TrEMBL record:
SUPFAM superfamilies listed in its UniProt record: NAP-like
PANTHER family, sorted: TESTIS-SPECIFIC Y-ENCODED PROTEIN
Keywords recorded for this protein, A-Z: Nucleus
Source organism of this protein record: Ancylostoma ceylanicum
Annotated compartments: Nucleus
Entry's Gene Ontology cellular component terms: nucleus
Protein name: Nucleosome assembly protein
Taxonomy, superkingdom: Eukaryota
GO biological process: nucleosome assembly
Length: 245
């Protein structure tokens, strides 16, 4: 595989894009990432987008072992820009699989591009106001974003007994969670817990938006270099000052 990656990158560097179909067989260029084709090795490059995501320092840290069988069905990642309301969307296209029924999962980022009426001089550029992900239609027993844990009760009449509870599990697919900062109606500056919740929500929003922006600006347009491992160190980073969270 490493030799194949090297040769594919060389073709692109040399401008031989038209020669790529010869490199991977008789596959037409239009089918390289054809979202209608299963990623089972019969069409395109097997696990292409899984390896692209693993080639970025930012997204590889999101991928757990149990994510990989699902991400092998990822056939394309695309993006679009919206102007009303302002923002952008990342689309993840999947071939039919045993894990969920969605063929496309999207994450939408909504931006505020106008100054705050109460503080117009404090405006320093667009800011992300919310991030909305699709609900994943998991098949029975396939939801890897949840896990069941046992906990032993230490106090009360049931001390010593075990209970089971469902908790959140680490997964790449938590990326599709919707993140909305707390509204003014739900914030109390005198309540320490509310202040901490608001701070955590904005920090989560900031980190999530950073991932979306890296996908849009770096990973998607330069996917082949992330696949081959030739993306320069730091290529999936950018000036965070460009957009205020």
């Amino acid at each position: 595989m490493e030799g194949d990656k090297r040769n594919l990158a060389d073709l692109l560097k040399d401008g031989g894009v038209s020669d790529i179909p010869d490199f991977i067989g008789t596959l037409p260029m239009a089918e390289l990432n054809d979202k209608s084709q299963p990623d089972d090795g019969s069409k395109g490059i097997p696990s292409f987008w899984l390896n692209v995501l693993k080639g970025s320092d930012m997204t590889q840290d999101m991928i757990q072992d149990h994510d990989e069988p699902i991400l092998k069905h990822l056939t394309d990642i695309t993006t679009s820009i919206e102007v009303d309301p302002h923002g952008f969307t990342i689309y993840f296209h999947f071939s039919p699989n045993e894990f969920f029924s969605n063929t496309v999962l999207k994450k939408q980022y909504f931006l505020e591009i106008k100054p705050d009426a109460e503080d117009p001089f404090g405006f320093d550029g667009p800011s992300v106001v919310r991030a909305v992900g699709d609900t994943i239609q998991w098949n029975d027993g396939k939801n890897i974003t949840k896990k069941v844990v046992k906990k032993k009760l230490k106090k009360g009449a049931n001390a010593g007994k075990f209970i089971t509870k469902t908790v959140k599990a680490d997964s790449f697919f938590n990326f599709f969670d919707t993140i909305v900062p707390p509204t003014e109606d739900h914030k109390n500056e005198d309540d320490e817990e509310d202040v901490r919740f608001a701070s955590d929500s904005h920090e989560l929003m900031r980190a999530d938006f950073e991932i979306g922006q890296v996908l849009r600006d770096n990973i998607i347009p330069r996917a082949v270099l992330f696949y081959t491992g030739e993306a320069d160190l730091g290529d999936d980073m950018f000036d965070l000052g460009e957009v205020r969270r």
